[in-house]
From TrEMBL:
It comes from Luteimonas granuli. The gene is ubiE. Its EC number is 2.1.1.163, 2.1.1.201. It is an enzyme of class 2 (transferase). This is Ubiquinone/menaquinone biosynthesis C-methyltransferase UbiE. Transmembrane segments: none annotated. The lineage of its organism: Bacteria, Pseudomonadati, Pseudomonadota, Gammaproteobacteria, Lysobacterales. Pathway: Quinol/quinone metabolism; menaquinone biosynthesis; menaquinol from 1,4-dihydroxy-2-naphthoate: step 2/2; Cofactor biosynthesis; ubiquinone biosynthesis. It catalyses: a 2-demethylmenaquinol + S-adenosyl-L-methionine = a menaquinol + S-adenosyl-L-homocysteine + H(+); a 2-methoxy-6-(all-trans-polyprenyl)benzene-1,4-diol + S-adenosyl-L-methionine = a 5-methoxy-2-methyl-3-(all-trans-polyprenyl)benzene-1,4-diol + S-adenosyl-L-homocysteine + H(+).
Length: 242
């Protein structure tokens, strides 16, 4: 492409996921706001504010799409830091890059089209690797977690922000919002209800808190833990490379 990105072969399902995001890239903010009543902005701020990162660090934000996470991490790594946005989808990456430039974020940013399952970076390249609302779309999550660990420096941290499991008492309301309200809002505002339905389903299939923590341990991360936000609508998982 004209980005000069590396071409990475993708499996059929990944291609479909890519198409879903191509069709929503333009309506992306609207989608997030509808899904979360705007609260995703607070989750992202908390996710980045509590990340283990310091000035001058090199950070990889996977499924970086719109650049929300990278923009929030910018002040934390400072002028000397480096932020790499990785995303499988060229349109999302383009949206992300345009927004970064609009926000005045140019120096210290780079954009790499890549699949989280096989990263085009050498071992030990980053102090922090993040993935926000992205792991759930990855076909082989174990492979992605192993890759995140591989590209981390020893002592570095990986963080996952993702939809998770809500308590039983909340489920009827949550399901109603996801399966009844969201697709209708999607059709109304974005002319697209299928993408919303896909998202609601992908959230239900994503491994819940304890299971994802166990997957991170199995991938080889040390000191794995998680924290629920908004009662488990989303959770932050993190682990370190020992
Ligand atoms: N991190 C951003 C945020 O929080 O606003 C974007 C999240 S968006 C819901 C999910 C992103 O994951 C999309 O941009 C999509 O292209 C990307 N994605 C899906 N599968 C991927 C994979 N296997 N490797 C890398 N990125 C992937």
């Amino acid at each position: 492409t004209h980005f000069g990105f590396r071409d990475v072969p993708v499996a059929e399902k990944q291609k479909l996921v890519g198409e879903v995001f191509s069709s929503v890239a333009g309506n992306y903010d609207l989608m997030n706001d509808l899904m979360s009543f705007g609260i995703h902005r607070i989750w992202k701020r908390y996710f980045t504010a509590t990340a283990q990162v310091s000035r001058g660090d090199r950070v990889l934000d996977l499924a970086g799409g719109t650049g929300d996470i990278a923009a929030l991490l910018r002040p934390r790594v400072g002028e000397t830091g480096e932020l790499v946005l990785g995303d499988i989808n060229g349109s999302m990456l383009r949206v992300g890059r345009d927004r970064m430039v609009d926000r005045g974020n140019v120096r210290g940013f780079s954009y790499v089209q890549c699949n989280a399952q096989s990263l085009p970076f050498p071992d030990g390249s980053f102090d922090l690797v993040t993935i926000a609302f992205g792991l759930r779309n990855v076909t082989d999550k174990d492979a992605a977690l192993r890759e995140m660990l591989r590209v981390l420096k020893v002592g570095g941290q990986a963080r996952v922000l993702e939809f998770s499991e809500v308590p039983d008492w909340f489920r009827p309301l949550y399901d109603f919002h996801s399966f009844q309200v969201l697709p209708k809002l999607g059709r109304l505002f974005a002319g697209d209800s299928d993408s919303y339905r896909y998202l609601a389903e992908s959230i239900r299939k994503h491994p819940p808190q304890e299971e994802l923590k166990a997957m991170m341990e199995a991938a080889g991360f040390a000191r794995c833990r998680y924290r629920n936000l908004s009662g488990g609508i989303v959770a932050i998982h993190d682990g370190c490379k020992a």
